[in-house]
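Q: Structure for this?
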Amino acid sequence: MAETTPKPWGETTVVGKPLPRVDAYERVSGTAVYTLDLLLPDMLHAATLRCPHPHARVKKVDFAKALKMPGVRAVLSDADPEANIPWHSGPGGKPASRLFDSHCRHEGEEVAVVAAESPQQAWDAVRAIQVEYETLPFVVSMEEALKPGAPAVQEGGNLGSKPNVYSRGDVDKGFAEADALIEETFTTSCEIQSPMETFVSVARWDGDNLMVWDSSQGPFAVQSGLARLLDMPLNKVRVISQFMGGGFGSKLDLSKHTVIAALLARKTARPVKLALSREESFLCVGNRPAHTMTLKAGVKKDGTLTALQLTGTGEVGAYPGSTTVGGQVMELYSCPNVRTEETSALINAGQNRPMRAPGYVQCSWALEQVLDALAEKIGMDPVDLRIKNFIAVHQAQKGLPYTSAGLRECLMEGAKAFGWKEARARARGNGTWLRGVGVAGCLWGYAGGPPSTVIVGLNADGSVILNMGAADIGTGTKTVMAMIVAEELGVPLDRIRIEHADTGTTLYSAPSGGSKTVPSDSPAVRAAALDLKSKLLELAAEQLKTPVESLELRGGEISARGGSQKVAIGNLAALRQQQALVGVGKRAPNPTGKTARPFAAHFAEVEVNRYTGEIRVLRMVAAQDSGRVLNLLTYRNQVFGGLTMGIGFALTERRVMDQPTGKMANANWHDYKIPTAMDVPAELTCVPVDMHDHEWNNTSTKGIGEPATIPAAAAIANAFYHATGVRARSAPMTPSAVIGLLSQGKVKG
Amino acid sequence: MAETTPKPWGETTVVGKPLPRVDAYERVSGTAVYTLDLLLPDMLHAATLRCPHPHARVKKVDFAKALKMPGVRAVLSDADPEANIPWHSGPGGKPASRLFDSHCRHEGEEVAVVAAESPQQAWDAVRAIQVEYETLPFVVSMEEALKPGAPAVQEGGNLGSKPNVYSRGDVDKGFAEADALIEETFTTSCEIQSPMETFVSVARWDGDNLMVWDSSQGPFAVQSGLARLLDMPLNKVRVISQFMGGGFGSKLDLSKHTVIAALLARKTARPVKLALSREESFLCVGNRPAHTMTLKAGVKKDGTLTALQLTGTGEVGAYPGSTTVGGQVMELYSCPNVRTEETSALINAGQNRPMRAPGYVQCSWALEQVLDALAEKIGMDPVDLRIKNFIAVHQAQKGLPYTSAGLRECLMEGAKAFGWKEARARARGNGTWLRGVGVAGCLWGYAGGPPSTVIVGLNADGSVILNMGAADIGTGTKTVMAMIVAEELGVPLDRIRIEHADTGTTLYSAPSGGSKTVPSDSPAVRAAALDLKSKLLELAAEQLKTPVESLELRGGEISARGGSQKVAIGNLAALRQQQALVGVGKRAPNPTGKTARPFAAHFAEVEVNRYTGEIRVLRMVAAQDSGRVLNLLTYRNQVFGGLTMGIGFALTERRVMDQPTGKMANANWHDYKIPTAMDVPAELTCVPVDMHDHEWNNTSTKGIGEPATIPAAAAIANAFYHATGVRARSAPMTPSAVIGLLSQGKVKG
């Protein structure tokens, strides 16, 4: 096993190239079998009866009529002892609910489920179940929830967590030292993860062995979650998550429907598919919680930040969840005096779940607009202000230096690519459309690490099997990992078979999320490939009777440097004899005494229609220090996807709760506005910043998914301010909100 | 990777125990998915049009009517360029045929194939294909085939191979030195492999990746065969052979139907299942060829063999095949003068294929009866004669000694268990039923070896994944391999998941056959488990701050010898941190300068009805030197299965060719007589002989499948002679044959 740190890559022949995905054919032609596509013989289909009320007690569930309906094979509810499974950790780690809980705390909570021969029969039967509810008072906004006497979502009240306080230095002293102060309150809306493939699990039992196909980012997390809840050892739970249609954090770990599918499959002794409709996935499987943040900041005339103070509340839904990351987000800028106090509020709505850079997107919305405002106050360019305050040391973690920190480079190279100075100086216009440009920066709190174990096997003909646990959630993980193997072994990409994301056939990998997959797994892949390479060269050295040090592996051939001897891998007699070689690689521990973060700076140019409130994003530049680019094409895919998500956050996306009924008013793709191609500028530019960080890991990678979206919305908001002179404190900036802002504020120009 | 030779096992806690199979539940409950059970969405079903004539040319194939039939999606025949694939190697390695060859050389050869939505539609369409044949003269018996002017099966004539001659010493001199001579001609019948699961493949393409589920003993052999014929690299061909219903050698490598399924799947862009009916499998996918053998042997009065001379011909079917192993079989006994001359004859019938101890069963039928006759001639006990001539050295291979050679022990311990002396002395009876006992010995020509690579992974909770390429063809391979892991890692069997026989997820293993699976793969499994164990103990040593040498792993716990410290595997902090550990094991090379063979001695007691010719096998004892017994239950299963097959060979099984029509007359389980429970004695005794061979490999195993069947038939034949005084030279000894024999010979008593 190769755990030692190999030499960093110099010039590469495969890595870094903009190659199409290795599974492009399957994805485009439709032969790829996603979990939703999976059909097993004798498979039943399940449908879930969900509470239609925002807050209710289930008094009685009558299955009599449903059970008589054609095709119905089983029902399950809180009345079944096997379904008595705790769910949601409440305060103090106590379970706050059960799999089917008679106390439903939001619209869409699971009341019962039916398994039938067809999805239609299952849904018909769901409609035939008669439930007697006792409706309860409810609250569906953070503001109302925290008022005294508000209906209690949980027994302990509506404060989801004790205030989480972080403090260093003395903020009052810092504010006193400041030449300029800003204090603003920002709000963001609840945004829903809405992956192309909704949530679906298929479960099958063979004896006491459970097999689950799941649309999941983390097959190993789903495996351990199921093993824990069903009291099984890991070897008896196999989870497969190959071909996955997106997750954005909502599929990082086990969901209720997966457990339910497993229980129904056990009860019926048949495979069971439980697929959530789009509406169900809007209600129940996660969201980016709305935030209210008051941020106070002080700055000296020369641009030195003196103090940052944040108080924030996240609207986490009906069950507690942590959303307190303000302190981490503000690590981006050097500041001796920082205080954050964050809490969360419970409301009768679906629970939050990590969503692409959880917390960071919201806090960045506040922080980066405040930076913008401070720059204006002291008359400094916003890019310069950020550069001035950037620090390559993690301030909270005992001053740990970063192995690389490219925010300055992102800002400078991004500004150059964007034409920042010129754009900033251009008139904002004075007709119907007002123009402006904005910038925002960010870091992201993770850069991966152990554990991941990867196996690379060599077939007798020189073709290769890459065996890794990581799921490819649509980002191109399979492609970039195979490229590393191709690079090291000198084999063409199409001579590599990839086995992945199957807890039965691959070894542990952390869930694919948090921008951690590439920096966590690619070093293990490289280590495994190099381990295999060294074994291969040893065999060749024996056959060629040449010292192993003199051998080179290139283009599928092994040759002696300076000599004429060479042999194709597939012609190595010893390989043909052994039929297979195997290399194992583990991710080496992260370097001690240092840490790493990816950084980014986004630039946006917008125009604002002063009469309709419409905002058009004209172009964006994203400069990303995510380490080495493994594949320019998939890298750009992720960056452009991140920018698109940022546009949605800034301009269109929000969960609308109907206050009188407590129900979500836009639980569908028509009313919940995800940006379409028409909302995204054709001019999106990706500027990779490679700091050649050879210290963090052996592939010099840091991760791209999250930092590609974090600052995008704030950059747009700052551009809006630049265009209009009005600060948009609330996201999204819908046309009606913009009209309101423009009518209140003074639009210059 | 642990390649060094570990210490042999002393006392074991799991290995050797008669444990039920790890997959017993799935096999018994029916949840096991055999290839025949596999249903894929959109799967088509194929059916094959086979030549009804023993010898014909296809002049015209008219699909017009078939193509219009409901559900028909594709047809394939020799007219399709993509089906122009060479098949069968002829003399000099030249292809003797094609996948669909217009020259059909036996009943059942493939003419065309149809893929349709259902098997019924496919068969209906097959019947609607109109074929114009030109029938040709044929020959379906070896005797006729070798006559001058016989119809030629192949262009080169009906001699399947040049005579294969082996010679050492001087047989004429040896015969001159003999005190007693025997020369007899023996014949055996063509026997058909008839596994419970017939032959079936399912093929699916994803882009240019081919996935095949196959009822196969050798998924890696099928993979490389497909890759070669379809000109693909190995990484693009995935073959899975999990849950397999028997093969007996007929599924060691690629069959035509598998290639056809792959071609149809490519043509239709749909998964295709091609399952052979029982009748098809009788006609086309292999058999143990009939043999005619003339054996001359000389012996001195003291029992010393002086010369052995064999001339033999195998009736190999319509395509050449090697069946010349007489020299190897006769290696069992020391003899300075040996000459064998073997050839094969082509007839218009299905081609032979390896069948459980190919060649050995036939030659043993002759050799062991001749030994019996020699013993009688010189008045020596047949057991003693065998012991006297046994030699623990391979005579042909430059006098290589065996690492262990337990024939003597098999004979002695078997005789003891059988009560040989007493049974031999007992009167044979003089009423309707005549009694007798017989013995026969054998060696088998293989004892396994590299290459096999196995991976054993440890989950964070201490449960285990065993990843190995070997197929479990019904013999219990999964069970015994998991037991080795359980033994070494101290984990219960049900904490081990087994991934196997999938070229996409496991590493190369040779086909499961030839009694080679256990001696080839179990040492690799043990090496992998020990590799993992050493890594595990290293982690524990760190956590317990104890030298690794002082640590013991037992019952899922690691403890320091003599100390009180201990930790459960699942509680090892470092394991939880790393989430997975992995051990890799390869089969070490076989020891140089030595070789190994398994040995066996079988004893049978029969009674013969002198009026009806019925032979009843009353009891059998099989003493087997197959090395260490890994699981007494699966070991006994194999031995009893081997004895049963021996009974079939001796008494009931034979392919009947109808001479006037050239067609097989008994291609079904009603007319082709496989022994049923009623034909097998309740008293079957297995006597494992363990020579504690720690030199051959690290599990001290040699293999059991073949040697459990080789001498069984001859032991029965010798018992028949003992009962009747009449030598049964032809197998099977059907009642009518026995009546014939008894009417010719003189039945004593």
